[in-house]
Amino acid sequence: MTTLELQQLNSLDASDFNHTPCYCEENVYFLCKKLCSNGIADAQGSDLFVVFISNDNKQIPLWHQKASNRADGVILWDYHAICIQRKRDGDTHLVWDLDSSLPFPCPLATYVSETVRPSFQLFSEFQRFFRVVHAPIFLRHFASDRRHMKDSEGNWTAQPPTYETIVAEDGSVHNLNEYIEIHAADVGKNLPADLTSAVYSQKHGVVIGEAQLEEFFSQIS
Questions:
Q1: Is the bond preceding residue 105 a cis peptide, omega within 30 degrees?
Q2: 1, 104, 49: which is closest to 221 by C-alpha?
Q3: Which residues belong to any copy of the Protein N-terminal glutamine amidohydrolase alpha beta roll domain (predicted)?
Q4: Apex 129 CA angle, 99 and 137, nearest 5
Q5: I want to staple 96 with a disulfide (CB 3.0 to 4.6 A). Which of 37, 83, 131, 175 is the partner?
């Protein structure tokens, strides 16, 4: 990492980015765009990956989350979305999580050990699975009209952002469920070359288990 890159990272704060509580999918969308526009990431976002975290039961525990009322910051999300920036030449991969109380950005290894805590013994229904989507693909195809944030009577369950909803390049207005529907059966049992290369071509990326996350990013080129 160059001196300029270090200076840019050290000058960043989570408050510099759009953040609306409970709208992590939109937050990460605009985070990727800003990282590209300010030179922190490649202009096309080729070094960025959007990662959705969920499971069959829509119950995933993550630690060091600002929304938690507990000292350890643990919270049970139905799903969460973060950005991981791949670094080459042996540099540390970085996690950009606007909802985390860890350093921003955070080294991937630290984020996994402190936020995911794969060594912590969880019941199987709380296992976390990760849908990894290449950011340039995500930015073209993702759409949300926020319908998932309204109750049966049409009332907002959380106050929405003030900006316009995100529409995909093809005109789609809502496809969030295609990203957050993550099941154990979708997980690749190992990490063959075709899985790590598929992330660059598949609209919905690839799904991996929590024990595979660091290995996956060490293998993609």
A1: yes
A2: 49
A3: 19-217
A4: 75
A5: 83
Q: Are 80 and 42 in contact (CB under 8 A)?
A: no
- Asked if 1 and 89 touch (Cβ cutoff 8 Å), the reply is no
What's the pLDDT tens digit per position in 171-213? 999 999 999 999 999 887 666 667 778 899 999 999 999 888 9
**Chain mean position to CA 74:** 17
pTM above threshold 0.90? yes
Name residue 131's beta-bridge partners.
52, 207
Annotated active-site positions, please? 24, 80, 97
The kind and range of the H/E element at 216 are helix 213-219
Q: Is 42 exposed, middle or buried (0-12, 13-18, 19+ CB in 10 A)?
A: middle
Q: Which residue has the tokens 């073209």?
A: 140
Residues in the chain with pLDDT < 70? Answer: 1-11, 89-90, 189-193, 221
C-alpha gyration radius of the chain: 17
Residues forming a β-bridge with 208: 130
Q: List, as one string, the DSSP characters of 96-159.
A: E-TTBSS-SSEEHHHHIIIII-TTS---GGG--EEEEEEHHHHHHH--B--GGGB-TTS-BSSP
C-beta separation of 50 from 133 below 8 A: yes
CA-based nearest residue to 129, from 74, 71, 80, 172 = 80
Number of residues written out for the chain: 221
